[in-house]
Amino acid sequence: MTAQERDLFRDLPPRGVILFARNIKDPSQLSDLIAELKAILSPGAVLMVDQEGGRVARLKPPHWPALQPAGSLRTAEEAFAHGRALGQMVRQAGFNCTAAPVLDIRVPGASDVVGDRAITGDAAAVAHLGGEIARGIMAEDVLPVMKHLPGHGRALVDSHVALPSVAVLTDDDLLPFIANNKLPWAMTAHVVYEQYDPLNPGTLSLIVIQHLIRERIGFKGVLVSDDLAMGALSGTPAERAVRALEAGCDIALYCPGDFEDNRAVLEAL
């Protein structure tokens, strides 16, 4: 961390931090960084990593083992073991939260931004195996974050690049989230759901968050936005963060390392 970042976190402490591959060199360096963060942040701050297994991995070989993608899991035993291995890796590295599991269903012809990150196209199997992954993660005293509510699997466009629009969400899209609505944390999707709110992406939509996520899905836990720097959204970083919280997100997640943008977001909140 720079001296500027240390001062910012002391003056305007965030709810937590998320680290990416750019922040991680090796176990020793990561341990020092996390110790420094813990000394500055509030007690109980969230230390998150975006670690799913497969192609979404910030803890990588040669220092950490590669985990299979969720799309290769077939049984409850495999899913629980996967979650436990993931949770153990994350906990031993110093984190207390990981952005997994993905509970989107795999839809043929959709953007491969989800692809093999999704367990399967069978909603009941996603619900069951995804729940087992989360249970395995929690067995290691790590917070899982199910994603991306209320469903990203049907999107034809990668929300990292542009704003996807989904005409109709089906019961299959919602089933995995409803079945796991007692999980502690969840993440939104930057997708326009035309049947609910044709004007705003889910992350910034009071209708989607309150009516669909909170009421229909029944999720009452901590709702964190997907990365507000993604290409799907418009406006300044601070504007995006304010809108996400106004819509009903509990935490605004802003992932780039730009100091001025980070400061603007924290000052706005």
From TrEMBL:
Gene Ontology biological process terms, A to Z: carbohydrate metabolic process; peptidoglycan turnover
Keywords of this entry: Glycosidase, Hydrolase
Superkingdom field: Bacteria
Residue ranges constituting the Glycoside hydrolase family 3 N-terminal domain according to the UniProt record: 15-260
EC number: 3.2.1.52
SUPFAM superfamilies (UniProt xref): (Trans)glycosidases
Coiled-coil regions listed in the entry: none
InterPro entries hit by this protein: GH, Glyco_hydro_3_AS, Glyco_hydro_3_N, Glyco_hydro_3_N_sf, NagZ_Beta-hexosaminidase
Keyword Ribosomal protein among record annotations: no
The reaction(s) this protein catalyses: Hydrolysis of terminal non-reducing N-acetyl-D-hexosamine residues in N-acetyl-beta-D-hexosaminides
Pfam families assigned: Glyco_hydro_3
Molecular function terms, GO-annotated: beta-N-acetylhexosaminidase activity
Gene3D superfamilies registered for this protein in UniProt: Glycoside hydrolase, family 3, N-terminal domain
PANTHER family per record: BETA-HEXOSAMINIDASE (PTHR30480:SF13), BETA-HEXOSAMINIDASE-RELATED (PTHR30480)
Family named by the database record: Belongs to the glycosyl hydrolase 3 family.
Protein name: beta-N-acetylhexosaminidase
Taxonomic lineage: Bacteria, Pseudomonadati, Pseudomonadota, Alphaproteobacteria, Acetobacterales
